[in-house]
Amino acid sequence: MAGKFWAWYERHLTLNLGIAGGLFLLQLVHLYWLTSHVVLHRVIGISLWDPSPFLEWLLLVVDYTEIPALITTSLVYINELRKKYHFKSVLYLIFLNSQFLHIFWITDEFVEARLTGAPEVTVLPVWLALIAIGIDYLELPVIYETIKRFLERLKKDGFTKATKVFKEE
Fold first, then answer.
1. For residue 97, what pLDDT is reported?
2. Residue 49 and residue 36 in contact, taking contact as beta carbons nearer than 8 Å
3. Mapped to the 3 state alphabet, what secondary structure does the chain carry?
4. Model pLDDT, residue 85
5. Which of 164, 158, 13 is nearest to 83 (CA)?
6. Distance CA 42, CA 33 (A)
7. Residue ranges for the chain with pLDDT beneath 50
8. How far apart are CA 113 and CA 120, in angstroms?
9. Burial class (CB in 10 A: 0-12, 13-18, 19+), 37
């Protein structure tokens, strides 16, 4: 069964890269908010973007797309490792899966509360919040590499071939 999955995955690699990259591009919105609102507020005392309650709700929705982004992008690098060992693929898998620590270990609400001085939601120290933020930025090289691979494959395969998912071969 795993063999059939990976055969399908390879046949539709361009589309799979596009889905992974698209989901991960949404995380750039979250990282922008984290930098311009949370981190800058802590470092220099001002926020460059203080979103409305509705935008905060949208940011929360975007943040939850991180889970499928991590799964789909991990498949990209697992597939690479299946074919040939590359240290970069291992490193990117570590970067990707450390995000689960960020998601489940220290929530964004905790990070914002600790760095903006809002009432504490936990007794964990500030240095853990800084680790969580650092983990969040490990996505950047993976996002870049995944989008780059997608664009290279799209150029090679063309849009029509890349979007033929259900065609029997």
1. 92
2. yes
3. CHHHHHHHHHHCHHHHHHHHHHHHHCHHHHHHHHHHHHHHHHHHCCCCCCCCHHHHHHHHHHHHCHHHHHHHHHHHHHHHHHHCCCHHHHHHHHHHHHHHHHHHHCCHHHHHHHHHCCCCCCCCCHHHHHHHHHHHHCHHHHHHHHHHHHHHHHHHHCHHHHCCCCCCC
4. 96
5. 13
6. 13
7. none
8. 6
9. buried
- The pLDDT assigned to 28 comes to 92
Amino acid at 110: F
Contact 154/15 with Cβ under 8 angstroms? Answer: no
- Tokens describing residue 78: 């697992």
In this prediction the pTM is 0.80
